[in-house]
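## Example record

The block below lists the input lines for one assembly entry, exactly as stored, with component labels intact.
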Amino acid sequence: MKSLVELRQLRSEIDNKQAAAQLNLKAKIIVGMGTCGIAAGAREIFEAIEEELQKGNSDAVLTRTGCIGMCEQEPLVDVQLPGGDRVTYGKVTKDDAIRIIREHVLGGAVVEDKAVARCITGKQQTGHELDQQARIPTYDDLDFYRKQYRIVLANCGRINPESIDQYIAVGGYEACAKALTMMSPEAVIAEVKGAGLRGRGGAGFPTGLKWELTRKTPSGKKYLICNADEGDPGAFMDRSLLEGDPHRIIEGMIIAAYAIGASEGYIYVRAEYPLAIRRLQIAIEQAKAYGFLGKDLFGSGFDFDLKIKKGAGAFVCGEETALMASIEGKRGMPRPKPPFPSVSGLWGRPTNINNVETFGSVPWIVKHGAEAYKAVGTEKSTGTKVFALTGKVKNTGLVEVPMGMTIREIIYDIGGGLDEGKELKAVQIGGPSGGCIPRDLLDLPIDYESLRDAGAMMGSGGMVVMDNSTCMVDVARFFLKFTQSESCGKCTPCREGTKRMLEILDRICSGEGREGDIELLEELGNHICHTSLCQLGGSAPNPVLSTIKYFRHEYEAHIKDKRCLANVCAGMGGAYVIDQQTCIGCGLCARVCPTGAVSGERKQPHVISEQLCLSCGACAQKCPVSAIVQA
Amino acid sequence: MNCICGHAQESYAKYFDPLYSILSNYSKDESSLIPVLQDAQDHYGYLPLDVLKEIAGYLGLSLGKVYGVVTFYSQFHLQPRGRNVIRVCTGTACHVRGGAEVLKAIENELGIKSGGTTDDLEFTLETVACIGACGLAPVIMVNDDTHGRLAPETVAMVLNAYRTKGEEVSRATSHVSH
Ligand SMILES: Cc1cc2nc3c(=O)[nH]c(=O)nc-3n(C[C@H](O)[C@H](O)[C@H](O)COP(=O)(O)O)c2cc1C
Ligand code: FES
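Predicted structure tokens for the full assembly:
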């Protein structure tokens, strides 16, 4: 590959090939095969379709694609008849799949009751099909998609991630051709700086500035790293991106490597993502074969090679200095900064490290220019952000929205709100380093600064919706337990401090909280935030501090009234009840009850009033026949 | 590695041959340590002390250093493990959607706690913070296969597919396989 012209030639060849396939009048069936699709049964469906096509003697083409983001509707199957629209079917079972093949692929009639949406691709349609298709919403009609703005996820669920040709056919690698043949490294950096792109790995550091710092450090050898360790529980955007559009990340990395002058790159992927690793391997091989990786790329004299490193199961390795230690073969422990990686990183060389989504945004910026990118989002947080919407929301899935959209819009307009009868209590944003945003703040615009000021954090972009059945103290404990067990142990505030905080939370959750515990948590938390070596400890108290800030009354209820308002914490739980069959009517329980909640005639089964019961358990301890249990 | 059958030399070689062929794929320096450990564990199922000694010798590292790395990363194991490794997600999304009940159901089904291995070495049970399939919570992984939208009642069916001679059955349930 030597030039943009050559790439365009290749693209038109691929276009012609695809057009020829269309002319051959072959139907296309595409099965969503990301980890989530497969977990929902996509492989079984793929096999069923294969079999059915053979039986029907059909020459339809069966392929796969990555995650389109509609997790709730998995498994997803798309059907595109020659000249027709691409119709997406959701929640497909094996029987549905067979029906879809018989009725739609072989019979030409859309299976309307299973259709979720269609993508307008059709040109020449017959009358009946046209009518039928008109009844199915287009992707843009769906609430889930209308408000999204897909830059990074544009191809996910659309192209086959194992085919470089399909990526090229949608304009892939043109940005990297443009950068390498028509722009100087400085110009590339200026463009990314001008776009205002900030790191999507959590902290939001300006990407262009980081590249510039690495470029300016003199050294014979520099490295580029893609951070795909994605350890935040509740986040899966990086996985989906790597599984659904690996070439976009590779292209972003080639551009970055050119800009900073790095000849060697690593993608550090967590070992829990076997499918992402495999798709990346395939993509790297293909890119090498096409001359996008290797020596003298696009005749620019610039060489770049890319390797995959598999993580070994340590959350802290997502931290950049720990990650580099891990690539070097050491224990993945962070070290103090400065020196920053841009000055002294991998094997002491200047190293630039960015998140998957950061790299995923780069090709678009180079192709469309800084101004176009800046036009999306807010002044200080430009562009889009991908969120993993999960928890008690109707449409779980991956959504990409312009920065500055409100949390309410994401949850209600895109996510479809909560299930019938459920009320939103809080939204957890940013995983273990983030915080819980209460209902009152739903109109908060999503950008780096607003979230930080509210006590949360962009983090990697996990967004977990919680309703009234979630106990906020328990959630705080859950996250702290996670960070505590992932603490590498190198610095004292994080190693010891998180443990002490966890002990306090444990006792609060088991009904043994003491007066002053809340204040102690706040004091400890603030100290840990300010004195930890890395941001693992530095942000570990966030979930606790933010829940204290917004849900202090829940902590107080646990400590003072020994009550868990959500009935989650065991040991406090709900009211006690008396088994009517076992009760002998001795009345001991009524005598010890501090609130007079027990009533009943002597020698008759007694009952406990749910309203009055404090769940103190005194009655159960006295009962001679063990007739009293907690509901 | 001493035995009294008289074939010590032979079985010694047989035991380590796979390790040597793994090592031959990597350069003799520290940066190879983690990938070598990963490959060795893939082959042996865990990391026996003798294997660690060989690796340390080959890469020119002290055994202490190798041991330090092995114990730092949760992926590495010094004890034999079950043929099938079950990882139950206890991440946020799964936590909120009932992951704990799924874990309990599996513990009951297998009669072991998280971290344990069944006596017949069929299953090892672990928890993991997030598998990245949160949209389908609650989720578990068995070996490299991900199973989503589970309920305590459906757990036994999933596991049965993995019991020995379950190879064919396992094809029939939904999973990511490699
Ligand atoms: C404990 C901890 C875990 C982290 N995990 C990740 C991660 O999984 N992925 C990631 O991209 N960044 C992670 N980071 C942030 C990285 O240190 C680094 O800032 C980031 O990769 C830089 O990329 P960006 O500028 O593109 O955001 C983590 C930081 C800390 C302190
Ligand atoms: S929280 Fe369970 S898969 Fe992410």
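The first helix of chain B runs from residue 8 to 23. The first strand of chain B starts at residue 84 and ends at 89.
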